[in-house]
Amino acid sequence: MTSIFNFLGKNMKTSGAKQGQPAAELISKRIAALGDWRGETLRRMRKLIKEAVPDVVEEWKWMGTPVWSRDGIICTGESYKNVVKLTFLKGASLKDPARLFNSSLDGNARRAIDIHEGEEVNASAFKALVRQAAAFNSAGKSRPAKKAKS
Q1: By the 8 A CB rule, do 94 and 133 touch?
Q2: Mean pLDDT of successive 10-residue segments in the chain (150 residues)?
Q3: What is the 3-state secondary structure (H, E, C) of the chain?
Q4: Residues 70 and 95: beta-carbon distance below 8 Å
Q5: Which of 59, 74, 80, 83 has the fewest CB atoms within 10 Å, measured from its CB?
Q6: How far apart are alpha carbons 67 and 24 in whole angstroms?
Q7: pLDDT attached to residue 148
Q8: Among residues 50, 44, 83, which one has the least CA distance to residue 68?
């Protein structure tokens, strides 16, 4: 499937549309369909992501997973029965002084934030982590390819 890009609001890009619907619309529908604390939590975290990186690209991947990207994936937002999980694909490379990462801590690359009902995430620390992930992606994009040893 080819990605399409739409601009919403302040240069908000969306991609990964399914059946002609922009990813942002599909994410909004997912949030509304949850209809409980998980939807409210995902809505709040989405808002913080957009505040942290205004030109973030919203995508809809892997059979219905909200994804936020800029020069690569920043994080995914999944909802389960007892948790909303925000997985940062390159989280192991990020500094987390506020210790927001509380899941997937043993992996070589990713880290996640599991949010349970009634829990609040430090908004400024979360936005700093999102900005750091976006900067990490941008820095990696501009690095020259490593030469193979002969």
Answers
A1: yes
A2: 30 46 88 93 96 94 89 95 96 95 92 96 97 92 56
A3: CCCCCEEECCCEEEECCECCECHHHHHHHHHHHHCCHHHHHHHHHHHHHHHHCCCCEEEEECCCEEEEECCCEEEEEEECCCCEEEEECCHHHCCCCCCCCCECCCCCCCEEEEECCCCCCCHHHHHHHHHHHHHHHHHHHHCCCCCCCC
A4: no
A5: 80
A6: 10
A7: 54
A8: 50
C-alpha Rg value of the chain to the nearest Å: 16
Residue 2: both structure tokens together: 């080819």
Per the structure, the complete domain to which residue 20 belongs is given by 6-136
C-alpha to C-alpha distance for 21 and 140, rounded to whole angstroms: 31
pTM for this entry = 0.80
On whether residue 149 sits in a domain, the answer given is: no
The answer to whether the CB of 114 falls within 8 A of the CB of 133 is no
Q: Which two tokens stand for residue 4?
A: 């399409």
Report the pLDDT value the prediction gives residue 63, as an integer from 0 to 100: 77
In-domain check, residue 67: yes
